[in-house]
Amino acid sequence: MVAAIRIHGNGGPEVLKYEQIQIGNPGPGEVLIRHTAIGLNFIDTYYRSGLYPAPSGFPLILGNEAAGKVVDVGDGVEGLSVGDRVAYVGPLGAYSEQRIIEARHLVRVPDGVSDETVAAMMLKGMTAEYLLRRTYHVKAGDTLLVHAAAGGVGLLLGQWAKSLGATVIGTVGSDEKVELARTHGYHHVINYRRDDFVSAVSEITGGKKCDVVYDSVGKDTFEGSLNCLRSRGMLVSFGQSSGTIPPVNLGILSQKGSLYVTRPTVFAYIATRAELEESANALFGVVQAGAVKVAVHQRYPLNEAAIAHRDLEDRKTTGASVLIPS
Fold first, then answer.
1. What is the distance between the alpha carbons of residues 125 and 118, in angstroms, rounded to a whole number?
2. Where does the Enoyl reductase (ER) domain start and stop, copy by copy (predicted)?
3. Region 61-67: what's the mean pLDDT?
4. Domain map of the chain by residue range?
């Protein structure tokens, strides 16, 4: 028996239950992992609340990413041995001390990168990778706007985009977060609670506006994000922490300058083994080179997952957070 956090129905953080479960042995193509650190992400709250439908029935174990060590391997698994350090972004089930997962989801963790760092950066880091390198190919001289700049993905986007030679503008909700974003690559940071970010972006850019806006906030920022784009600019909507974006008349995109809007997900960008390895290697490369630093700002015992969810939804967290199994 191992400990895990399960939900037996959708709801608030109180539905997260710390329970003992039986997991068995790995089958063909599968690996048994002992988790050492588990990533905490806003998408976890979407599955918990029911905003995103669960891919399977209840009870359900949340969590898409973690780091750990291989405990056992099933038949047909090649390239992995007991004791190997591994990490993954994969199907739900990470909120547990141990789990069985298909080997195809796993990547080896390079030396010099801690388990907490890896667990905190896999989903967020590969999200930053595809946003900057593939959804919109950021290059030197581009101007970006990133909402939630002090969040887990936001802090990675700021550093990585700066290393690519882009001018990076961020929005945050407090003066404390302004300073945090500035230390993570942002050239300009706007406190949206005090200043109108559309006007601020226009002033910062001399009226030229942005090539791309990365928006994980959703309902509260959608229209303003469109107004921050130059003609033929792109809005990348990759989250909705403030709520679902209401129906949109596509004609507004032509009125505002033939704009592009996309709603990507990380799993569509790591759908093949080759894409997964390319994304992970690009992420590990910028971290090992020192261009991107991943700071774990919050650590919660696994049995305090409900507290972690409340803090995340109340926007009390900054940067990355992890759950630590006992």
1. 9
2. 11-323
3. 96
4. 2-122+285-324, 140-263
User: Which of 130, 172, 142, 174 is CA-nearest to residue 154?
Assistant: 172
Residue 19's DSSP bridge partners are 4
Residue 319 has pLDDT above 80, yes or no: no
**Domain 2-122+285-324 architecture:** Alpha-Beta Complex (3.90)
Residue 129 has pLDDT above 80, yes or no: yes
